[in-house]
Amino acid sequence: MNKVKSYRLNQGLTQTQLAHKVNVARQTISLIETNKYNPSLNLCKQIAKVLHTDLNSLFGGN
Q: 58 pLDDT exceeds 80?
């Protein structure tokens, strides 16, 4: 399970705002947050950068 939604909310961003910052559709962010879409490594890095965290914190295990 990833922590994209938690980090996004902590940054005060909507799905639409995050999607805009990483150049994807809002639906893509929704699918990532619900673990229904496996994003590319590049997209993971972009999301982590926008959310001011690292890949392991965002997508790593518990």
A: yes
